[in-house]
């Protein structure tokens, strides 16, 4: 139980930042014990720090994580990712406890699309269907017809009649890429991810000339200038699988750096270079994803806080387009 000095409501607001952990504790071992005791599952995104990836029961891209959240039999889902991902798990599992190690782990892309502004935009185009990238709030999901992820966006768009008018939100880069791949002209919301729009074309070009053997692989949240010169474009899982199967020895990776850990583990003999951002900071580390730490994950499992809670009307409205995505993905043979 929490000590009386630390109230639940405070954990929700400030997280576990000030709570000390006995330094002699083996946190890996404690997490493993807590999983069994509480019938808890740890779902982690590839952008989490290596220690978190190592204790996770499942690591995946947004589609794989949503599919796993939909079928888990655990009583507690501990989501090592960002808020919209944990929120999706809660939408699919109202009766389960869904925990997020740091409630402030948000997403710049999700923040770029506030529901009231989006509703006003959508109302101007009543004959358009709304496809939203999963990186959005429950409020945006509730205003959408179908949710997609970077691994199924193209197939979902292609499954709709050619003359269907579509609004795509919130990522203009993914939307632009899908327009290009499908020949559609979807209306795009003007949102972007702070990590993927920071890559420097100039520095990547120089890096490529220093490593002529290297392939550039990029996430479709990157800007068009980067995607144009990429050898392969895909979701995090697709990028990872590509590096396992492809014959090259070196890759310049244009996405968040967390995935380099799984790439290196799955293909130990290969070299992975993080694509450089256009300034000196480590901007291709997502500050939201990196709010979660192994210590916070342990405390969150021990105290079962902070928990994702959601109002039922909103949950039901947000669930419809997610269910549609999961059904379509099943039909299209996309697994996680
Ligand atoms: P995927 O893992 O689905 O490719 O998404 C990347 C991302 O930006 C998650 O926030
Ligand atoms: Fe959001 Fe970008 Fe971070 Fe993914 S990497 S959580 S899209 S800010």
Structural notes for this entry:
This protein is an alpha/beta fold and 336 residues long. It has 3 domains: 8-104 and 288-310, Rossmann fold; 109-193 and 316-331, Rossmann fold (3-Layer(aba) Sandwich); 201-274, NadA-like (Rossmann fold, 3-Layer(aba) Sandwich), CATH 3.40.50. The chain has 16 helices and 12 strands. The chain is globular, with a radius of gyration of 20 Å. It binds 1,3-dihydroxyacetonephosphate and iron/sulfur cluster. 1,3-dihydroxyacetonephosphate (13P) binds at residues 61-62, 135, 149-150, 193, 219, 221, 235-236. Iron/sulfur cluster binds at residues 47, 82, 107-109, 135, 193-195, 256, 286, 288-289.
- Secondary-structure element series: HHEHEHEHEHHEHEHEHEHEHEHEHEHH
Radius of gyration computed on alpha carbons: 20 Å
Number of helices: 16
Helix/strand structural class: alpha/beta
The CATH class of the largest domain is identified as Alpha Beta
CATH topology of the largest domain: Rossmann fold
- Major β-sheet, in short? 4 strands, parallel
List cofactors, ions and other ligands.
Answer: 1,3-dihydroxyacetonephosphate, iron/sulfur cluster
**Got a strand count?**
12
Sheet-strand content, in percent, reads 5-15%
Distance between the termini: 36 Å
Mean pLDDT: 94
What form results from the Cα inertia axes?
Answer: globular
Poorly predicted residue ranges: none
What is the domain tally?
Answer: 3
Q: Could you give me the name of the CATH homologous superfamily of the largest domain?
A: NadA-like
- Estimate percent helicity: 40-55%
Strand order of the largest sheet: 2-1-3-4
CATH architectural designation of the largest domain: 3-Layer(aba) Sandwich
């Amino acid at each position: 139980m929490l000590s009386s000095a630390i109230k639940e409501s405070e954990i929700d607001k400030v997280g576990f930042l000030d709570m000390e952990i006995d330094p002699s504790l083996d946190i890996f071992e404690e997490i493993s014990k807590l999983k069994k005791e509480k019938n808890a599952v740890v779902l982690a995104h590839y952008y989490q720090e290596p220690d978190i990836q190592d204790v996770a029961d499942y690591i995946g891209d947004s589609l794989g994580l949503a599919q796993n959240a939909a079928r888990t039999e655990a009583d507690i889902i501990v989501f090592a990712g960002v808020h919209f991902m944990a929120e999706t798990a809660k939408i699919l599992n109202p009766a389960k406890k869904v925990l997020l190690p740091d409630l402030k782990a948000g997403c710049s892309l999700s923040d770029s699309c506030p529901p009231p502004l989006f509703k006003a935009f959508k109302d101007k185009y009543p004959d358009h269907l709304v496809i939203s990238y999963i990186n959005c709030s429950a409020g945006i999901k509730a205003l959408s017809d179908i949710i997609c992820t970077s691994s199924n966006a193209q197939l979902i768009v292609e499954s709709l009649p050619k003359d269907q008018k579509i609004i795509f939100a919130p990522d203009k880069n993914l939307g632009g890429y899908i327009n290009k791949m499908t020949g559609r002209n979807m209306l795009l919301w003007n949102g972007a991810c702070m990590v993927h729009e920071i890559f420097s074309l100039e520095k990547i070009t120089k890096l490529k000339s220093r490593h002529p053997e290297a392939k550039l692989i990029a996430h479709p949240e990157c800007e068009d200038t980067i995607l144009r010169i990429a050898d392969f474009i895909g979701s995090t899982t697709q990028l990872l699988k590509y590096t396992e199967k492809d014959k090259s020895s070196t890759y310049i990776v244009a996405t968040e750096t967390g995935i380099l850990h799984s790439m290196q583990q799955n293909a130990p003999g290969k070299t992975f270079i993080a694509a450089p951002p256009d300034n000196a900071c480590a901007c291709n580390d997502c500050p939201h994803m990196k709010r979660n730490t192994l210590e916070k994950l342990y405390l969150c499992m021990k105290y079962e806080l902070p928990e994702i809670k959601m109002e039922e009307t909103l949950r039901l409205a947000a669930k419809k387009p997610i269910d549609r995505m999961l059904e379509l993905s099943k039909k299209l043979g996309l697994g996680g």
